[in-house]
Amino acid sequence: MSHNKIILTLGVVFLSFGSLLAKDYDSTHELPEVRQPDKHRVYLRRNSGYGGLYFPGLDYTKNETITAIALGSYTVNTFSQYAKLKENTEANSNQFEFEYRYMDKFRVFKEDRTLISKIAKDDPRLLQFKEKSASLGIAYFHPLTPHLNLGVSLRQVDIHQITRKSTGLFDVGFLSNGASVTLISTVDREFNTNVKGIVPGIHLEIKPLRWFEIHFGKQFYNLSGNDTRSTLILDSRYVGNTGTVAPYLDLSNGSVGYTGEKTTLDFVFRFSSWFATKWGYTVERYTMKYNNYFIYTGKIESSMIYSAIEGSQKQNFEYGSMNFTLEFSKSFGE
Known about the structure:
The chain has a ten-stranded antiparallel barrel. By secondary structure, it is of the alpha+beta class. The chain has one domain (3-30, 45-332). A hairpin with a 2-residue loop joins strand 7 and strand 8. The chain has helices at 3-25, 56-70, 76-83, 300-311; strands spanning 40-54, 89-102, 106-117, 128-145, 148-174, 180-206, 212-239, 242-270, 275-296, 315-332.
């Protein structure tokens, strides 16, 4: 979905809700009523997102092909497969949040998100990506005016990304002497990335009306961790009752830095003191870079060459999603 379509969709949502609620809450003769903060309030949220995703495994496999071509280890099929590589895929995300607020200023929150990609059937890589992230954080929001809050936050963020590919090829034929030939090829790949660290953020809450708010936030990621990858290819050929198996295995490991930004924009509609919805857009852009890296290909010479080349290459993550959130809250205490 293009950015223009996203902006148009959010505009329609805003106008629709504005027309519905203006009669009850808007006035041309006095300032809009602003909800007074509760001493204690807890929030439960369920967020669903959908959008375009580009994940590190796509860069890694594309770089593999470029490296193979550069080193002369390629076939006609290498070029034909490279031409079919897609630049991104689609993905769904689901996030659960729990938050406690004291006087709406001091906040403690827990967030858990799962992000899963759709397999692009027309992309020969056939990669399945899944990310699980968890964060625990604190924040302070200062009311500059009754209609404007400025906030800062700190999160302890843990991210686990796993990318898998598991495919098989089966073919049967006959030789000129009538003997049957069976070809079986299986490919199993798995990439695991684990990073964590402290993520600071800045936030802005605009509250022009009691029932309508605009939330903007930006988080700054500078995480570190490790990355491990494995590839196992088994090529089997059977002629009659005689068979041969040609295995190929490579393993890699490295420490990585994971840096970038996450930007969110939400339009909040409060239907009551305990229920609200959010409609918004999120953009996440990160770069993963190896601090050190080694891949074992079966031979020391090629392992050293591939380690130097692949270890110098960056991999990118980008996710832009439309989001919808259900929010339930409850105040307690005086």
